[in-house]
Every structure is written in C-alpha cells, then in structure tokens.
C-alpha cells in the first residue's frame, strides 16, 4: 500500500455503531486466538528440533579478554545471540540491527531469570564495537568475531571473494539467493549441557529476526500499522536512535477553538 492509498484509507475508514464494532471485533478475536494457538504449536515444534553439536572452537574478543563460545553463557544453560551487521571496515553498525538491539535492555533481566544469556556478536573489531556501543548508550554484552569463523559458519557473513564470485548470491536463510551486502542479520540459540558441551538449537533470519522487535508488535495494533511504503527496503524509515529528527509535536487546537462545548 503506497502512502496516498494509506492516507485515503484512513480518511475514508468505516465508522460504525458500537454494537456492530463489537461484532466484528469478536470475529477478529477468534482469528487472533487461532494465531496464538498456531504460534504455540510452532514453538513446541521449534523446541522439538534436534540439536547439532558445536565442534569448532570459536574464540571472541570481549572487554574482559578472549573468551570461547562456552564462556559466553556466563553460567547459564541457554544463550541467545543477535548477529549484528557491523563489518570490519564499517563506520557504524546497521540501523536496522540497532533498532533490534534497542529492545535488549528491557528484556535482559527477565531472560537471565529464565536461564538465558543474551548477547550481540559482530565482525567489527572490538575497539570499533565499544566506540559505537558507547555512542548508543547500550549496556548489553557485545563481542567481536573479527578473527573467528563464527559469523561465516552461522550464515550471516559472506567472504568478499565468494560474494563477488556469486554475483551477490549467497547461502542465506537456508537457500542460495541474492543478498545486497556481505553482512546479514540473524538470531541464533545455543544450549550448554552439564559436561560443558555446546549445541546449536536454532537460528532464524530475514523476517524471523522480528522476534526481537517489540516496537513492531505495537505498531501492528495501530490504525497506520508499520506505515512502511518502500517495497524494496521497508525499513528505510529506521534511524539510529540518536539520529532521528525531533518527534513531531502533538497537534494543537486551531486558533479560536476551545476544548469545551458551546452554550
């Protein structure tokens, strides 16, 4: 839907009696319940997926020094990784990945109380990560896979030569397809058993990473929805949170009007 069509839809939107609205709302509620049950069913199927053992020894640069993948669990059994698009020669991290990461602060303490450690991994050198993290005011753990195959092995980084030879086609989201960059977003999940062995349990890419974007869930409740109109790159509206223009002020009453009824 383009901007003009969306504005027309809002201006000419149906307005009905409360009783009729309630009838249609209940019909939608039935559909929402179907979606909730389907989501629960898929979550059960996701948990039932077999695991694969992580045999390679991955090492990451962290503010505390080099750490292995097993170290990153920080004493918990489950690890959720945001693969953040921030290449070694980039000046700053991806705006859309930053939009994802903005949601971590509110989730972190709750995840930790459910035996989950959450962290972010990028291929940028640690010094660049720390510089950008300070600029954004983030407090979450963010480590560098600069000298590791981690991002390549989990399908979110593509070696320049391979990307060029494939003419921009890469193996991403479980298929070979065109991709416009050498870095991609993703979310991966790992489990560590009592023996210290690490298992890869799940990864999701493309729109699957919306699982981290709580803002989208709220926008989906509103009349304008996500209000995205670029068919090639829907998230072109997203900015780093310190790069937005000031938010529009609330509309003020027109001159001469008042907020109470006339005599």
List its traits.
263 residues, six-stranded mixed beta sheet, disordered C terminus, alpha+beta, 8 helices, Glutaredoxin, two-stranded antiparallel ribbon, globular, 32% helix
Structural class, by secondary structure, is: alpha+beta
The biggest sheet, with number of strands, parallel, antiparallel or mixed sense and barrel status, is: 6 strands, mixed
Low-confidence residue ranges: 256-263
Strand order of the largest sheet: 1-10-9-4-5-6
Radius of gyration: 23 Å
Count of beta strands: 10
Helix coverage percent: 25-40%
Task: Report how far the terminal alpha carbons are from each other.
Answer: 44 Å
* Element order: H for helix, E for strand: HHEEEEHHEHEHHEEEEH
Mean pLDDT: 91
Give the class-level CATH name of one domain: Alpha Beta
What would you note in describing this structure?
- It is a single chain.
- This protein is an alpha+beta fold.
- The chain has a domain of 164 residues: 3-Layer(aba) Sandwich (Glutaredoxin).
- Helix content is 32%, strand content 19%.
- It contains eight helices and ten strands.
- The protein is globular, with a radius of gyration of 23 Å.
- The two termini are 44 Å apart.
Give the SSE map.
Layout: H1 3-11, H2 18-48, E1 52-53, E2 59-62, E3 65-68, E4 78-83, H3 95-101, H4 104-112, E5 116-122, H5 126-136, E6 142-144, H6 150-153, H7 160-165, E7 169-172, E8 175-178, E9 186-192, E10 198-205, H8 214-219
Summarize the structure.
This protein has about 260 residues and is α+β, with helices and mostly antiparallel strands.
